[in-house]
Amino acid sequence: MNLPPSPPSCPTGGPVPDGNRTGKSDSGRSIPPCPRFPAEAVAGVTELWQYTHGHPDITIGFYDGPPDTAHPCLEGADLRVLPPWWLPPAADDPGLVEHGTFTASVLFGQPGSVLPGLAPRCRGISLADTSDGHTSPDPLHAARAVDELLEAGADVIQFTVPYHTASGDADELLKRAVNRALDAGVLIVAPAGNDHGHCGIAPAVLPGVLAVGAHRADGTMFRFSNFGPAYRGHGITALGEAVLGATPGGGVQARKGTCAAVALVTGVAALLLSLQRRLGQAADPLAVRDALLVTARPCTPGQSGGQVERCLDGYLDLPAATRLVHAAAPARPCGALPPTVVPADRPVRRSPRAATVTTIAERPHLAQAEIAQPSSPAFLGKDMAGRWAAHARLQQRFPQFGVVATDAGGSVVGRGWGVPFALSAPGRGQLPDGGWDEILTWAFADLQDGSPPDTLGLLAIVVRHDQQRAGLAGALLAALKNAAQVTGLRQVVAPVRPTRKHREPATPMAEYARRTRADGLPADPWLRTHVRAGGRIDSIASASMVVAGSLAQWRRWTRLPFDTDGPVTVPGALVPVHCALAHDHAVYVEPNVWVRHLLP
């Protein structure tokens, strides 16, 4: 496809790497920035277009002003507009219509039109913001917008309507809606805002949301582009100057700001999701988010005015993210797509959110480091094997199979650990019904006997509460699989404790584990993370952890009366606890789900 001609003397292909354009003519007069069509505003788009202009199964939802769908560039686009049913009827505000039309054109402008968009073959859903000057955005509107687009089937949600927050946090209503979307595997992209860092913009400040800042055409940061601790670890920067888009009535004009930049990032995220489909993979919006973050190009002091934090986690680098998506694809036969779109020119960082992940063997001083997290139910770890493991100091005995993640300041933000054992030993062979407790027993027996292990059993992965839903658990899982592979083990197995099973203690675990989403992935977030990482659900460990105690102990652990025979529902328990008053004890038998990861 050919782009419309660029304005005279305007280079293509994205920003100059280090602010080398002065913006001055030889006579010293300011030169206006060159307007760029969306594909010219992001280096690597035209190369990616060789393989996909978007996949019709990928749906982009955006909450913005109502677009002018009669604009010629949107003729033929698969775009529908949803009204915000919770807002009072109002006449369309011209400024909002202009904003929504710009966003729609950058995403869905059709090939050969006056404004070709980035992902014209994707499906679009516009949730129209019809508020006026008397109806300010509030957390309820924001939460409803996220829920509406999630319910409509969006894979990517661009949330453009600003909700200002001076605290760097957001209302609980909005946080819950964002978490529902993230738990469903949906990517939320939002502008960082244009407030010079004086306040934050929700939902961009929330962990897991991909926040987008703006830089100039010469590669230097706009000083109005928001930055600060709330954006750290989940933000990237894209071109936010002189980006061309459609205007109501059939015109085209350039815009600037983080809302221009966020449309570019949303478009390339949809292209990467489409590339996953083109490569035979399931579309994974959160993996695309992580690919964009870990490949973001660090900025220089010259680009940031001496404050590199202004660049958030770095500049958008679509070629590097494309390489990463290609690298995750299964091997393809001769004649299929090449393994990369562009040559590799630099390494990729090791994990999401700029965390450093190593084994405990590499950093033994972190073996006992604590992580701030919500407290677990007190009865967990009261089983015999759990008490034994605590006394044995597993990460000191098996430091090569413990991993730890630290942030830029050196604080521990995540850890994971497992134990090696010989699954092929006589009398074993199958994953045991005894799950967590059984593999601990086998691991210590093999250690005493000197039996060579062939399998790593995962025991736990823990992520600090403010770093959750940002891909770090998946990075720790990948690091544990790598640790097993480099030591010659054949596979990794995990007795998985599903994240949401405690909400349904009466549901049999086998029934719960069979539930899937429309894309075929498990409905439970933690099971889904394992399957995305290449795991396969194997079976149910029906008695993975057994906790028996006196009624006095259970009352102390749970603060419940335990004064009735039979099943007792306990907060945090995956199944009911069975109480026997006559025998003065209660027993909890927790099932887990066996997931098997075969290693190359």
Please characterize this protein's 3D structure.
- Residues 1-10 have a biased composition (Pro residues).
- There is one protein chain.
- With 600 residues, the chain is an alpha/beta fold.
- The protein has 2 domains: 38-349, Rossmann fold, CATH 3.40.50; 354-598, 3-Layer(aba) Sandwich (Aminopeptidase).
- The strands form 4 sheets. Strands 12, 13, 14, 15, 16, 17, 18, 19 and 20 form a 9-stranded mixed beta sheet that branches. It has a 7-stranded parallel beta sheet with strand order 2-3-1-4-6-8-9, sandwiched between helices. Strands 5-7 form a two-stranded antiparallel sheet.
- The longest helix is centred in the middle third of the chain and has 21 residues, at 258-278.
- Helix 6 (258-278) packs across helix 7.
- It is elongated, with a radius of gyration of 26 Å.
- Strand 10 and strand 11 (251-255) form a beta hairpin.
- It contains 16 helices and 20 strands.
- It has helices at residues 38-41, 45-48, 94-108, 139-151, 172-183, 258-278, 285-294, 301-304, 318-327, 384-392, 394-397, 435-449, 472-486, 509-514, 525-532, 551-558; strands spanning 59-64, 79-82, 123-128, 156-159, 163-165, 187-191, 200-202, 210-215, 235-239, 243-247, 251-255, 356-359, 402-406, 412-421, 455-463, 491-496, 536-550, 566-568, 577-580, 585-598.
